[in-house]
Design a protein that fits this description.
CATH superfamily of the largest domain: Multidrug efflux transporter AcrB transmembrane domain
Low-confidence stretches: none
Strand order of the largest sheet: 2-3-1-4
Order of helices and strands: HHEHEEHEEHEEHHEEHEEHEEHEHHH
CATH class of the largest domain: Mainly Alpha
Oligomer: single chain
CATH architecture of the largest domain: Up-down Bundle
Number of helices: 13
Radius of gyration: 34 Å
Helix content: 40-55%
Number of domains: 3
Strand content: 15-25%
Distance between the termini: 33 Å
Number of strands: 14
């Protein structure tokens, strides 16, 4: 079969060249579409379920949250395994699906089952799905450089401006904030005053919640104009909380300020984020969505950072803590250099030993065509361009060159034998 294929190719060389050009063009298209990353994604096909129940011990979380969720999520189709972790105030579930399962189909199935499992959990406990990213999705870290702002102000700027802007970038699954203090209103209640006014702590909590709300009324018409009645009651300052009425004793209203001190503070923290030992900083971690092109997402992210930075307060800038694009660019530059290096060496060796430029050209053409076709297979099997795959292509170039040299040398030997045999006959 092989001799017949070679004979047919020699008789139809233009068809072979046309097919090779078509395969090369198709490979270039797949090269441009192939996701580019630094490292291969070897993480399992998983969906994360996160549940928070503040103040509860790990044993209570395990018994009342983790166990009911695990027992109900195990029956989902194509689930390979369910792993769970219970800790103080939090529960994490990792639902592992088969490798050929579509991740968004899996998330939909988990969300459907969570709707059913919600009734088994304590009141007010709501499980949520984690971001649609993978274990290697942390592609970009940044911090805020703001010398004139305290950590609470920096965290508020990160949560309510920077984070929301960066989440609009295509391919970004989540922007996780870290560092600083999450601002909150804190009520420091005096237990002696509670006892004096005969007020329970639950009454205080309920009254503060009830007084932090806007209510809507009906619409009425007057003088051919329609008016909508609204009651504005959202708390905007700590003074508003101080004026909240808790109870009435002997015709005198007892307000929050009579039994507690209201202050602006930060939420309880379990750790800090330090940069190079120079002090605590505030920033964010950008998590890439499943199956996206890491290089393209980082480039779009950097463009967005420049536009966001223009709207920051004076003296506030971004400082990049981790950027995977450097590793990605190094891997791509390496394969480019290897291609040029292989072509130069092959050209030199073939011309030096064969003294025939057409033989060198036939061998050199095989390199870009074969590399381009390899990207068709990479896209077909869902493999990204990363250090492992590009290194494999670089190593395979040597095999491609060796085959071309052997075939050229073999052709020359057969031609030489044919010429000798012909001369002998003459």
């Amino acid at each position: 079969m092989i001799p017949n294929l070679i004979a047919w190719s020699l008789r139809n060389r233009w068809i072979v060249l046309f097919l090779a050009a078509g395969a090369f063009a198709w490979g270039i298209i797949n090269l441009l579409r192939n996701p580019v990353d630094a490292i291969p994604d070897l993480s399992e096909n998983q969906v994360i379920v996160f549940t928070e129940w503040p103040g509860r011990s790990p044993q209570i979380i395990e018994d009342q949250v983790t166990y009911p969720l695990v027992s109900n999520l195990q029956g989902i189709a194509k689930v390979k395994n369910v792993r769970a972790t219970s800790m103080f105030g939090m529960s994490f579930l990792y639902i592992i699906f088969d490798d050929n399962t579509d991740i968004y189909w899996a998330r939909t199935r988990v969300l459907e089952r969570l709707t059913y499992a919600q009734r088994l959990l304590p009141e007010g406990v709501i499980p949520t799905l984690g971001p649609d990213g993978t274990g290697v999705g942390h592609i970009f870290w940044y911090t805020l450089e703001a010398r004139d702002m305290n950590l609470g102000e920096q965290r508020a700027l990160q949560d309510w401006y920077v984070k929301l802007a960066l989440q609009t970038v295509s391919g970004v699954a989540e922007v996780a904030s870290f560092g600083g203090f999450e601002k909150q209103y804190q009520l420091v209640i005096d237990p002696v005053k509670l006892q004096y006014y005969n007020i329970s702590l639950t009454e205080v909590v309920d009254k503060v919640k009830a007084n932090n709300n806007d209510v809507g009324g009906r619409k009425f018409e007057m003088s051919d104009m329609a008016y909508i009645v609204r009651g504005l009651g959202y708390i905007k300052s700590k003074e508003d909380i101080e004026q909240v009425q808790v109870v009435i004793r002997n015709g005198i209203p007892v307000r929050v300020k009579d039994i507690a001190a209201v202050q602006m503070g930060g939420d309880i923290r379990t750790g800090i984020f330090d940069r190079n030992g120079n002090g605590e900083v505030v920033g964010g971690i950008v998590v890439m969505r499943y199956g996206e092109n890491a290089d393209a997402v980082i480039k779009a992210l950097k463009i967005k950072l420049k536009s966001v930075e223009a709207g920051l307060p004076p003296g506030v800038t971004f400082k990049i803590a981790y950027d995977r694009s450097h590793l990605i660019e190094a891997a791509i530059d390496n394969i480019k250099w290897k291609l040029v290096e292989e072509m130069a060496i092959v050209t030199l060796i073939v011309i030096l030993f064969l003294f025939h430029w057409r033989s060198a050209l036939s061998i050199i053409i095989q390199i870009p065509v074969t590399v381009a076709i390899s990207f068709i297979l990479l896209n077909l099997f869902g493999v990204s361009s990363n250090i492992m795959s590009l290194t494999g292509i670089a190593l395979a170039i040597g095999v491609i060159v060796d085959n071309g040299i052997i075939m050229s040398e073999n052709s020359y030997r057969h031609l030489s034998d044919y010429q000798n045999h012909k001369n002998n006959l003459i």
